[in-house]
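Thread: quick sanity check before group meeting

JM: Hey all, I'm pulling together slides for Thursday and realized we never actually wrote out the predicted structure for the chain we discussed last week. Dropping the sequence here so it's in one place. If anyone has concerns about the input, flag it before I start.
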Amino acid sequence: MVPSPRVSVILPTFNERAALELLYPQLAPVVGALEGELLVVDDGSPDGTAAYARTLGPLPCRVLERPGVRGLASAVLDGIARARAPVLVVMDADGSHPPATVPALVAAVGPGGAEMALGSRAVPGGESPGLTLPRRVVSRAAQGLARPVTNVHDPMSGFFAVRRDVVARERLAPVGYKIALELIVKCRPRPLVEVPFVFGPRLAGESKLGRREMVNYLRHVGRLYAFAARRRAWSTR
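JM (edit): ok, ran it. Output follows.
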């Protein structure tokens, strides 16, 4: 009988084969030491990402294909539904999220006692050399829009560890790609700790952040404003 993993690392992918080939040798020993599994959630990549992921080993690696479906947040939610461990780690497959930070995130929600550990570029020790100047400007503007609903330093981060039971607290329905922000606002993990990390350049491929994702982010934040307002109204009754 295959033992259940202690940690499930969820990697949403679309056309990430070249990056995954470079990332896996760094990630495998880290996840193996944590007695974890890798879950690749692929949105029908035409570059053969899913087929390549199926060849990976010896680290336990499962592949969930979603042909005809696109969306980072929904890919993460589908990965959470299929993950087998009590601790979930979500990270990008492009190499911008360093595998070396994964143990610190997991330790924070295990022995550390936090319900969620957010990889942060905005606390001491965190940096973002992998962001171009235009993306820095966009990120700062997006952070400002999120301030009314959360006081974390880096609400735009997509690199985090969370306990499975925390995710089950609310129905999640993010628009776009900021699943961590959705979790923070709706599920209210307490305590939440921010773990510094250095956001690096992509190992391969191109960023998928475009105008459509920016519009979706505005819609998402609007929904979270409404959610927070309803919660405040209920709490005062």
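AS: nice. The first strand starts at residue 7 and ends at 13. The two ends are 51 Å apart (CA to CA).
JM: adding both to the slides.
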